[in-house]
Amino acid sequence: MKHFTIALVPGDGIGPEVIAEGVKVLKTIEELDSELSFSFTEFPWGCEYYLNQGKMMDDDGINQLRHFDAIYLGAVGYPGVPDHISLRDLLLRIRKSFDQYVNLRPVLLLHPSFTPLKDKAEKDIDMLVIRENSEGEYAGTGDWLYKGKPEEVVLQTGVFSRKGTERIIRYAYEEARRLNKTLTSISKGNALNYSMVFWDEVFEEVGKEYPDVTTYSYLVDAASLYFVSDPERFEVVVTSNLFGDIVTDIGAGITGGLGLATGANINPEKDYPSMFEPVHGSAPDIAGKGVANPIAAIWSVSQMLDFFGEETWGKVVLDTIKGLTVETENLTPDLGGKATTNEVGDRFAEKLKEKWVEKR
């Protein structure tokens, strides 16, 4: 039997509600497959913890997480705690401490009714965005000079190391080759004359080792336009930390909203645990109402299973998500349904059992 240990950080707002449904899925898989088992340890970290303790997580929190196979994060952020504190002192701290330098965000249209774009089908919006996740614009490097004075100056420095830039671009080339798909780089080399010129040069340099991979390169403003007007252009995409954050929100917008947006923070070498999360945020305005969409959280379970080497189960979970999308009555209000968060999770577990029987 394979056993996986999972650290749960449900976090803030709707985080605990959607993570509970993801855990329900993993427990259902455990019931169905005698070769797999999971154990869960929950940590109370987040904004409520910050308001009580003055910190987003325990001082030794990273060491507490170090020996888990994976981290399952719900959401971070809540009114009363500045966003730069909630983000940097928990989510970014985990990403950096565990060198989770690959951020995988699928942009996939599950059902034509979900997209606001005219005449687009599932085959038209099917891409994987690979975002650099450890440095770049989110490196946190800079200075605040002469604060409060007329000559006040703020410096925010993007950090693009040879190691960091090359490894994410190489990872993207490997994925494009493995999937037999095109690879598109998104940058802004015409305006950012150091960081993005360097990015473009490394993309071209590494590409010489992958002559079989067809490549394209777009400026981020043009790419943002094409995400909406012509998403068929994109199959595998690689981009920087900031640009990846932005274009994947566009991706969520064209595929049904943030309730379907998922992400995996990967340390490919598995020296440290990787982290899986829905990326819709804490949505405090709907927290506790039972209307949060758990599909993104369940989708991140599919990514987790892939990372564990359980690709068969990962595909079954994703196929079950696709099957659920046609049952409007079993979807949450953001997708046109009337089901509660818990009801979606229950129906998903039922369909998962049906799908597993079909596969067997």
Automatic annotation (TrEMBL):
Cofactor: Mg(2+); Mn(2+)
Keyword NAD: yes
Keyword Nucleotide-binding among UniProt keywords: no
UniProt GO molecular function: D-malate dehydrogenase (decarboxylating) (NAD+) activity; magnesium ion binding; NAD binding
Enzyme Commission code: 1.1.1.83
One Pfam family here: Iso_dh
Domain Isopropylmalate dehydrogenase-like stretches: 5-348
Source species, domain of life: Bacteria
Reaction(s) the record says it catalyses: (R)-malate + NAD(+) = pyruvate + CO2 + NADH
UniProt entry keywords in alphabetical sequence: Manganese, Metal-binding, NAD, Oxidoreductase
Spans traversing the lipid bilayer: none
Membership in a protein family: Belongs to the isocitrate and isopropylmalate dehydrogenases family.
Name of the protein: D-malate dehydrogenase (decarboxylating)
Species this chain originates from: Lentibacillus cibarius
Organism phylogeny: Bacteria, Bacillati, Bacillota, Bacilli, Bacillales
